[in-house]
Design brief:
Number of helices: 20
Structural class: mainly alpha
Distance between the termini: 25 Å
CATH topology: Sodium/glucose cotransporter
CATH superfamily: Sodium/glucose cotransporter
Shape: globular
Number of domains: 1
Number of strands: 0
CATH architecture: Up-down Bundle
CATH class: Mainly Alpha
Order of helices and strands: HHHHHHHHHHHHHHHHHHHH
């Protein structure tokens, strides 16, 4: 089975965009605005809370758009379009099963614990619920994963810019890293968030023309489905065709592993514990705004799938055997190919700017979360505690520089992997899933002891790695694709972490009940009892209504793709 490839295999050599002075002018204006936002945000940074969490002062619509923009890295845009060109409508599972329910769960269930406990990071919550060992291990694992993922975004940017604009890889890596470094170091999280709001609209401005013109070229949706049915079979434009247990399909996963591996374990592990996302919600001005942050983000997430899926389907319909060796293109050429074929100058400049914005949004989200976790959870807690607040702001800026430099290094490490989308899913199964099981058990089971957090996190991480690197890579178990292996690794890590937590809790003492207030479901802390702000009684400001509305809307979107 062929998979969308990145890494050593680059975009097709003939994909050189006919950019001119107008396109480069648009790109230059964007970079000037990005730096301008960084300088403007610098004036608001007076304390460490300002630098790392924007002083908890931002409105829900700002944090909501930043939340979705931080996820809209170009690895997702190019990777999901590539998945669509290869797998067809199966891509919708990553959005309507693999995102929306978890985002709603984060907003309705977990944000009251995060925000009410006044933690500055996700690992800090583990310090309150469990002990220092669980906190330190989770901090180290998260900081390591954040740098790896930031490097993936930088490397993906380099191969795309090299192919589309002819820039050398190292130039693209250094230039993009320098711009992200500049605006985060200047303005901290506020700069990153306001730039992510801008980047959200720039990304939409890039994807919408590609989608609309692509559909027009193939004769609309009916023309697209007719062409793909004739060349790829009936199941290519359905979400569930061929996913019965024992059935073969290109995705290498049946409905059970899709629902459990992707829809529950990987999805909830990513959206509820990935601090690169949660950090945006923690910067909201009050608990209600913090809860609404992922729920506001869920609505555009429902529809963004069309903007990344349709270009992949159009490319598969226009080029016979698209993605195979005989076609001259790879699966990840889908969006660049349509940019070359369909977009006039000016619009082309916006599209190129949108891709660069997407890469920078993904990298900025991980770098800003890295500097927060490293400074507040590792340096301040265990290395240099008790210093004045200004010291940690200065150190936060310094560690941002180090983090970006490390990301440049891991960008070259990412080149050793042939498929960065599978690489990202592998990282999530190693780091996010074990943290999720520790959170979910600790949050809903009072008896979970302080020691259980550390051993559950360690067991889940080791089990996921052993399943992937030993059982799968060594051929002990046979799985048809890396994505299928990631689903199984995630399930194995989750189960192992839960079993170890249960066993350790039986033989160790639980924390006193008074220390669990506001940290376990059914208990409340003063921070969670926050009265609604004036005007927060409007229906569109009620998290429960927003959350259930997103779930119902996502479920309704499945109907056209289910048969």
């Amino acid at each position: 089975m062929q998979t969308p490839t990145y890494g050593h295999t680059y975009l097709a050599a003939e994909l050189r965009l006919p950019t001119n002075w107008l396109d480069y002018t648009i790109l230059a204006i964007y970079f000037v605005v990005v730096l301008g936002i960084g300088f403007a945000a610098r004036r608001s940074v007076k304390t460490s809370l300002d630098f790392f969490l924007s002083g908890r002062s931002l409105p829900a619509w700002i944090t909501g758009l930043a939340f979705i923009s931080a996820n809209l890295a170009a690895t997702e845009i190019l990777g999901m379009a590539a998945n669509s060109a290869q797998y067809g409508a199966y891509t919708v599972h990553w959005y309507w099963i693999g995102a929306i329910p978890a985002m709603v769960f984060l907003g309705l269930v977990m944000m009251p614990f995060y925000y009410g406990s006044k933690v500055r990071s996700v690992p800090e919550f583990l310090l309150l619920r469990f002990d220092r060992a669980a906190h330190l291990l989770s901090s180290i694992l998260f900081a390591f994963a954040a740098i790896l993922i930031a490097g993936v975004n930088l490397y993906a940017l380099a191969i795309v810019v090299e192919a589309l604009l002819g820039w050398p890889q190292w130039v693209a890596i250094v230039v993009a890293g320098a711009f992200v470094l500049a605006y985060i170091t200047l303005g901290g999280l506020s700069s990153a968030i306001y730039n992510e709001v801008l980047q959200f609209f720039v990304i939409l401005a890039a994807l919408i023309p590609i989608t609309v013109l692509g559909l027009k070229k193939v004769g609309g949706w009916n023309g697209l489905t007719d062409k793909l049915t004739a060349t790829h079979g009936q199941n290519f434009t359905t979400a569930w065709g061929g996913t019965g247990i024992g059935s073969a399909n290109p995705l290498g996963a049946n409905w059970l592993t899709i629902v459990l591996g992707l829809g529950f374990v990987l999805s909830f592990g990513y959206w509820t514990t990935n601090f690169a996302e949660v950090q945006r919600a923690l910067s909201a001005k009050n608990l209600s705004a913090g809860q609404r942050t992922p729920l506001i983000a869920a609505y555009p997430k429902i529809f963004i799938v069309f903007l990344v899926m349709i270009p992949g389907l159009v490319a598969a319909a226009l080029i016979p055997n698209f993605g195979t060796a005989g076609s001259g293109y790879q699966y990840n050429d889908a969006i660049p190919y349509l940019m070359q074929e369909l977009l006039p100058n000016g619009v082309l400049g916006i599209a190129v700017t949108g891709l660069l914005a997407a890469f920078m949004a993904g990298m900025a989200a991980n770098v800003s979360s890295f500097n927060t976790v490293f400074t507040t959870d590792i340096w301040e807690k265990y290395v240099v505690p008790g210093r004045e607040d200004g010291y940690y702001v200065r150190f936060g800026r310094l560690i941002t520089v180090i983090g970006v430099c490390a990301s440049i290094g891991t960008a070259f490490l990412a080149s050793s992997f042939s498929n960065i989308m599978s690489y990202l899913q592998t990282l999530f199964s190693f780091f996010n899933v074990p943290m999720f099981v520790v959170f979910i058990v600790g949050m809903f089971w009072k008896r979970a002891s302080a020691k259980a957090g550390f051993w559950g996190l360690l067991a889940g991480t080791v089990t996921a790695m052993v399943n992937y690197f030993v059982f799968y890579k060594k051929g002990i178990i046979s799985l048809p694709s890396d994505q299928g292996a990631n689903f199984v690794s995630a399930i194995a890590g989750f189960v192992a972490g839960a079993i170890v937590m249960f066993a350790v809790s039986l033989f160790t003492r639980p924390k006193p009940a008074e220390e669990l207030q506001g940290l376990v479901y059914g208990t409340r802390s003063p921070g969670m009892a926050e009265p609604p702000a004036p005007g927060d009684d409007a229906w569109y400001r009620k998290p429960a209504l927003l959350g259930w509305g997103a779930v119902v809307l996502a479920a309704a979107c499945y109907i056209p793709f289910s048969f």
